[in-house]
Amino acid sequence: MKHSELLWIQNMARLACGQSPTGQQPTEILNQAIAFFLEDLTAILHGHVNYFNDLVMQNDRPELAVRIFRLGVPRSGLMLLRGKEKLVVQNEGFRLRIRIVQVHAYQEQSVDAFDVDAVLNSDNSVTWVATHDRQRVNPLLLVQEYLGRFMGHGAQAFLRPKSVSARQTGANPLELQP
Q1: Domain boundaries, the chain
Q2: 149 by DSSP, 3-state: which?
Q3: What does the alpha-carbon distance between residue 73 and residue 59 come to, in Å, rounded to a whole number?
Q4: What letter would DSSP give residue 164?
Q5: Three-state secondary structure string covering 43-100
Q6: What is the dihedral of CA 93, 167, 109, 84, to 10 degrees?
Q7: Cβ distance 116 to 128 under 8 Å?
């Protein structure tokens, strides 16, 4: 069982017994939420990447394979590599930064960036909000938006101009783009 699941069960037991879920400070709650978010995101990414790699290897296309790495000090997170492109998810304070980067000879060019903030609610729960449009997000939505486009088309999918913005159509900005 994952650490996040154990803590969730412990807090549910405390609530059932009429106790407060945790006696933690807000910063501890936010740090724990970030760790859980990254843990869930990592689990989802590993599942999707492994399945994707199995399919591209069956078609003898090893250059399309995606490699996934965990990042440690100074900022925890993940990095996915595909050819000369990478998707980086890093923890910066109470914010997660997702960047798509193209790697050239001796430089990197950031193609797209997306920030997600951890917001502590009055009931000590944490909500994840995209900074650019204040929409709620979760690890699965991030995987669908970023990983889908990154694995399918690479960084080029993020460079294409969009004909109509999501706000104009009323569409969810985190849905997959064709």
Answers
A1: 3-158
A2: helix
A3: 37
A4: S
A5: HHHHHHHHHHHHHHHHCCCHHHCCEEEEECCCCCEEEEEECCEEEEEEEECCEEEEEE
A6: 100
A7: yes
Which residues partner with 154 through β-bridges?
none
pLDDT tens for the chain, 178 residues long, are 666 677 777 777 777 777 666 566 778 888 888 888 888 888 888 888 898 889 888 988 888 888 888 887 677 788 888 888 888 888 888 888 888 888 877 887 777 888 999 988 877 778 899 888 888 988 888 888 777 777 777 666 666 554 444 444 444 444 444 3
Q: How far apart are CA 87 and CA 82, in angstroms?
A: 8
CA angle 176, 56, 72 (to 5 degrees): 70
CA distance readout (Å), 26 to 40, 93, 122, 124, 134: 21, 13, 10, 8, 21
Q: Identify whether the C-beta of residue 90 lies closer than 8 Å to the C-beta of residue 96.
A: yes
User: Is 61 in contact with 77 (CB distance < 8 Å)?
Assistant: no
**SS3 label, residue 81:** strand
Dihedral, 132, 135, 138, 139 alpha carbons, nearest 10: -30
Of 108, 81, 77, 113, nearest to 92 by C-alpha is: 77
Please report the pLDDT score of residue 14 as a whole number: 73
User: Which helix (H) or strand (E) segment is 152 a member of?
Assistant: helix 148-153
